[in-house]
Amino acid sequence: MSLPRSIELLAPARTADIGCEAILHGADAVYIGAPAYGARAAAGNSVEDIARLVSFAHLYNAKVYVTLNTILYDDELPDVKRLVGRLYEAGVDALIVQDMAFLKMDLPPIELHASTQMDITTPERAAFLEKAGLSQLVLARELGLDQIKEIRKHTSVPLEAFIHGALCVSYSGRCYASQICMLRSANRGECAQFCRLAFDLIDANGKALEKSKHLLSLKDMNRSKSLEQMLDAGISSFKIEGRLKDVAYVKNVTAYYSQRLDEIVAKRPNDFKRSSDGHSEASFSPNPEKSFNRGFTEYFLHGRSPVHQFLTPKSLGEKLGRVTHISKNSFTSDSPVQLTAGDGLCFFDSDGKLNGIRVNKVEGNKIYPLKMSGIFVGAEIWRNHDHALTTLLQAPTAQRYIEANITLSQTSNGYQLRLCDETGVSTTASFKAEIQTANKPQKDNISRILTKTGGTPLKITHIDIQTQAEPFIPSSTLTQWRRHIVEQHLAARSSKLNSIPTLSSGRGQLSSDAEARSLAPQAFPNADHRLNVSNRLAESFFSDLGLQVSEPAVELQHKTQTDTRKPFAIMTCKHCILYALGHCKKDKSLRLAEPLSLRLPNGKTFPLAFDCKKCEMQIFSS
Q1: Structural domain of residue 413, as residue ranges?
Q2: What is the pLDDT of residue 256?
Q3: For residue 515, what pLDDT is reported?
Q4: Residue 167 buriedness (CB in 10 A; 0-12 / 13-18 / 19+)
Q5: What is the dihedral of CA 514, 517, 518, 520, to 10 degrees?
Q6: pLDDT of 562 higher than 70
Q7: Largest Cα–Cα distance of the chain, in whole Å?
Q8: 2-31: per-residue pLDDT in tens?
Q9: pLDDT, tens digit, for every residue of 57-103?
Q10: CA distance 348 to 579
């Protein structure tokens, strides 16, 4: 019988402290930004803080992945190499990367994971990246279960997929809108959120079919109901998006998904096991609807379905119900949810604009907001700020412990303590002491002192006293011994995960590998700007495989807003505006005057093209 497959819940960490909270709330791994070169420029952390997070995570056999997933310029390569060395010395478990330069650098033997920016949508690309030495692959968000299964057939490394959080409307790594329009590169961690802007939809005659709608803005992902199906399709790492999110968001969402995965593991222990150690207990009932969200979607996991949220890019939160009655300074709704003072509510007015109100007082089913702000009977209301939960989540809300036993035994010149935890890690310490027989029972006192491990990850569940007679050991001495062995054990656990990883055999050997060279043209069918080549090492990586890059990364071509070139696709999307509006071109009875364009308030337009064979939409530069 095969061993259970190890699975991980991978949570975001804007800071080291948030990373520690993610682990306490059930994460098996966290990903965090380095001081620079991460795909969230506003979420960098010092190497010292990352090292502190590593030490904490390794107590639970949890892992820390650092994001270095921007494309790099030539003058940055030496600094990146030095940074990788420092991260390796800090004990980081893996780097999440996009730039192929990492596969040409002389790096310490640290694991490299393929970022979602590598645009892994095909079995050919996945198989090639495994051959190249990537030890974990983050698949494109757009893939369905059947596509994931097909990639699993052609790979053996762990596959990672997003399960929750904000969605990019373009395939990751293939969005150039922010760079072209605002000189802020998404591939350099400076996305300007072009997809959250309001647009008009214009037909070929200049008629506005939709006005001032957020036509590229999507709902947030929530795949909590499909985790088991994703496991069976081959996913082993379940990733929560949100390296810019606050600690309350990370606590709530991490705890929720950890509990869902625990339920699956409990049901199928022969198939799956959590990759980290310990038991996480949250002091609240997690609910992702209570954290920032724009409404939820499973995003093509089970095929095409509505994924858009055209009315607003802001958080809606928890759906409550409808307004049933209005008085001068209060209103009632049909929601069974009990609100409290300080809650934030929102609703769409008659013009489709999102309005927010703050609850000032609640009396029975009457809600008194600070201002009525145009609320009306029939308005659908959401709670986008749960004041009680937010306040609760600012305090400690979870503990994570590892069960252990302590054995006290007698030696020729004193006593010995042996601490063994549930994962099999054990520590033994001997203490010289005068052996004295107790005049009265000591077992309860010995157990009480040796089980006092509060403030540490250990929870002592059993004490075994193996002595010739009931010993007398002063309480202060027992306390010192307990502290000593607990410190030793935790140090052993922390260092247990710091062994040097084995370097994948593929890294740095591709130019002479016939299989890799044969896979390359299928893995990278377009050797143009879509390869995001921005430095000499990345260019060399492809040329060694016989692929000649026809043009460098967009970031090197468009350095000023006065640059001109022929229109090209600044976004390629699985989301289709025509489908969302009920005008799918596969329905032959529906006809619109094409070509269609998106228009910003400043008058700038962006032509649209629809590839119905691939079921994709492209947005072009003007």
Answers
A1: 404-496
A2: 98
A3: 81
A4: buried
A5: 160
A6: no
A7: 101
A8: 899 999 999 999 999 999 999 999 999 999
A9: 999 999 999 999 999 999 999 999 999 999 999 999 999 999 999 99
A10: 23
Residue 119, exposed/middle/buried by CB under 10 A (0-12, 13-18, 19+)?
Answer: buried
Structure tokens at 562: 């006065």
| Residue 325 DSSP class | E
Type of residue at 274: R
Q: In angstroms, what CA-CA distances link 485 with 401, 406, 451? A: 17, 10, 12
The pLDDT of residue 585: 77
CB 352 within 8 Å of CB 311:
yes
Is residue 212 included in any domain, yes or no? no
Tokens, residue 194: 């072009």
Question: Is residue 350 located within the same domain as residue 423?
Answer: no
Mention every residue, 6+ apart, whose C-beta is less than 8 A from residue 234. Answer: 148, 149, 151, 152, 159
Asked if 229 and 363 sit in the same domain, the reply is no
| Domain end position, chosen among 373, 393, 413 | 393
pLDDT digits (tens, 9 = 90+) for 251-271: 999 999 999 999 999 999 999
DSSP label at 91?
Answer: T
Q: What is residue 41's predicted lDDT score, i.e. its pLDDT?
A: 74
User: Which tokens sit at 219?
Assistant: 């709902």
Whether residues 354 and 278 share a domain: the answer is no
Q: Nearest 5°: CA angle at 254, between 249 and 257?
A: 130
108 and 10: one domain? yes
Q: Are residues 385 and 431 in the same domain?
A: no
- Residue 90's identity, in one-letter code, is A
Give me 364's structure tokens: 């029975």
Contact 90, 118 (CB under 8 A): no
| Phi and psi torsions of 510, nearest 5° | -75, -30
Mean pLDDT, rounded, for 405-423: 96
Domains identified in the chain, total number: 3
Q: How far apart are CA 520 and CA 539, in angstroms?
A: 14
**In one letter, which amino acid is 556?**
L
Q: Output the pTM of the full model.
A: 0.95
Which of 212, 169, 173, 211 has its CA nearest to residue 193?
169
CATH number assigned to the domain comprising residue 325: 2.40.10.170
